[in-house]
Amino acid sequence: MANNYESGRLDLPFVGHATFGKRPPCLDWDNIEADIGVLGAPYDFGTQYRAGARFGPRAIREASTLFSFGHAGAYDHEDDAIYLPTSVRIVDLGDADIVHTNTEKSHANIEFGVRKILAAGALPVVLGGDHSINIPCINAFSKEEPIHIVQIDAHLDFVDERHGVRNGHGNPMRRAAEKDYVTGLTQLGIRNVSSTAKEGYEDARKMGSDILSVRQIRKLGVDAVLERIPKAARYYVTIDIDGFDPSIAPGTGTPSHGGFLYYEVLELLQGLSIRGEVVGIDLVEVAPDYDHSGSTSFLAAQILLNFLGFIFHARQSA
Q1: Which residue in 61, 74, 210, 263 has the fewest CB atoms around it within 10 Å?
Q2: Among residues 212, 216, 301, 309, which one has the least CA distance to residue 251?
Q3: Structure confidence by residue, pLDDT tens digits, 166-182
Q4: Nearest 5°: phi and psi at 209?
Q5: Full residue range of the structural domain in which residue 218 is found
Q6: pTM (predicted TM-score)
């Protein structure tokens, strides 16, 4: 009998359609039958400096094909575990429609897609786009049970309003903290000159934020950081790629040196998947034109697929 590696097509990464992880597309959003729904949000009109994150979802999908080998999931010899076997159903919903220059309609379309994923009982994974796309993602949880937000980022993104702008990529964590169904925020990796003024930090702490820089996290260690996050909560995780150091993630609009390395974030996410229930994810600010090597997109795809593997392994082990 042929083993799993010999059954079906070989389906190499450069063959076929570049859906996320080469998983099936699902363009009928009223009939989502999956454990994970991946939605692109190619919106970058909220940026204050370099644009280009509108091409993030395509680049992440293309990079994710590298990690689509095999028909039996991904075996991790360190954990002696098989992550993302075929029993974990992932579908790619394509992209929310973006209406150029119209933030309200674009954000509404993103929110609509996330609500459809939630209504189907699946885990929404949203590929940005700039960090403002987190605003409609969090809006979509208005009828769900309360959530705690865990943010990986170089910037606090807690600006209330600046020159009338309330829904740009410097505002999402402030908008989230205002929701009565958001119980608090853990903001990790915040460093150096930030997008938020001093009073924004003061407001964030008053509104329930725990803020740690990369250096503080390294001093505390992963286990101590996880202990600061409410246990057995429902977590929404938002990952800005500029939370990583630009030496490994140069393809972003606002690079900030002194960032995380890969395993620092991976271990935090693995611990989080065991500590509570991850109910939503977005990964934002990948701007591939600033990284012709493609390593930023590969990093984004790899961290997402590993994180999803951890989440569903923890669910199945519970």
Answers
A1: 263
A2: 301
A3: 999 999 999 999 999 99
A4: -90, 140
A5: 20-317
A6: 0.96
